[in-house]
Amino acid sequence: MISINSLLAEIAELLELTDTQFSNIKSSYEAVAMWLNEGEEIKKYGSVEIFPQGSVGLGTVVKPLRGEEYDVDMVLHINRKGIPARELKRMIGDRLKEHSTYRRMLDNEGKRCWTLNYADSLSYHMDILPTKEDSEPKYYNGIPSILATDKDEWTGLYSDKSTNPRGYLAWFFESAQKGTEKRKVFAIERIEEYPRKTNLQKIVQLLKRHRDVYFDSLGMEEDLPLSIIITTLAAKEYIGGQDLWTALQTIANNLEHGIKICNNKYYVYNPTDLEENFAEKWNQKNRKAENFFRWNNQLKQDLNRLSLSRFPETSELLFKMFGEAITKEAYSSLSDSAYRLREAGKLKADTKTGILGTVTGETVRNHTFYGK
Questions:
Q1: In Å, how far are 241, 329, 361 from 119, measured between CA atoms?
Q2: pTM for this structure?
Q3: DSSP string, 197-227
Q4: Cα angle vertex 329, ends 323, 333, to 5°?
């Protein structure tokens, strides 16, 4: 019998980008940074750097359900204060349009970002968020907040919004290390190293995949719970020291604890910059909040049923929760691995639970298929 822990870990692994995709992403954003830094107008303000935020930086990327584009979030930071938000946004857009390839790939100006579509060859789009230094920064463990451009969708006016993407990455990885020894974990800036994923990273991937499958089954594409909200709430509830399956149940049952309600408004604060409310749009469109609670209730029901299930019901539940194709691939991969271990005499079965592993229990004999 394959353990639920192994299955969940394998599903999370199969949701990953490939090494080639990671390398392509890194090459792409380094090329964009180089092009921007060579712009004469930008040089007047100082140097530009680009670094990842969101799921790529956190190591919580989830493969799209039907081969849609990956969403790659990047922060473009110019080391200068006092640039008007409108000017910063325009300057970056103008420089991208000077490049014949980027001009063809560039979307219309977004609320906060400029977007480059790599869909033709690499199947992702890169959202580039222009930022500058904050004249009155707030710090998280010595990491200062920065100011991001924001364009009002109704008035067209530009403003600055405080954020701390590097601080958030640091906070998340600190949360992921709870109950473990300090060690290097996955980050896109360390692409050349082999990643060691933490349980928290895997849990966030599983939660996001469950969200995608659930709303897809309802035929809904809009107003889904944001990944940053799921990630933040999960990290706040992660205590460490538990196996993947137990930690997933613990987080799912307590996910709502990080949501604050004041004067009938919802708040999910950025833990590294309390001026930033990730649930801001919940207060503009209540359906977003309703969909989060609806999904979270379904998640808890599914996990409870899974905890009480036995094969083959377990498989059917996993199909429903994470998708049939990826779950079957996980079973197949683990079965192949078990076969190789058994042939090498390294596969053991727990005499009480029947769960297969390599540490304790009775050695599983090789199949000879001729009665010996």
A1: 40, 25, 49
A2: 0.85
A3: --HHHHHHHHHHHHHHHHHHHTT--SSPPPH
A4: 145
Q: For the chain, how big is the Rg over CA atoms in Å?
A: 23
Whole-angstrom Cα distance, residue 188 to residue 195? Answer: 9
Own/partner contacts of 286-291, CB < 8 Å, gap of 24 or more, are 287/223, 288/223, 288/225, 291/215, 291/220, 291/223, 291/224, 291/225
- Bigger pLDDT: 68 or 334? 334
Q: What is the pLDDT of residue 342?
A: 42
- One-letter amino acid at 198 equals T
Name which of 202, 204, 195, 207 is nearest 244 in CA terms: 202
What pLDDT does 150 receive? 94
Q: Which two tokens stand for residue 82?
A: 């006092």
Do 225 and 211 form a contact (C-beta atoms < 8 A)? yes
Which string of DSSP letters, residue by residue, matches 274-319?
Answer: EEEETTGGGGT-HHHHHHHHHHHHHHHHHHHHHHH--TTHHHHHHH
| Each residue's pLDDT tens digit, 106-154 | 999 999 999 999 876 568 899 999 999 999 999 999 999 999 999 998 8
Query: CA-to-CA distance for 124 and 70, rounded, in angstroms?
Result: 4
In the chain, pLDDT over 90 holds for what percent of residues? Answer: 62
Give the Cβ contact number of residue 4 at 10 Å: 19
Cα gap 183→55, rounded to integer Å? 20
* DSSP notation for 101-121: HHHHHBPSP-SS-EEEE-TTT
Classified as helix, coil or strand, 28 is: helix
Give CA–CA dist 207/205, Å, rounded.
6
C-beta of residue 9 within 8 angstroms of C-beta of residue 319: no
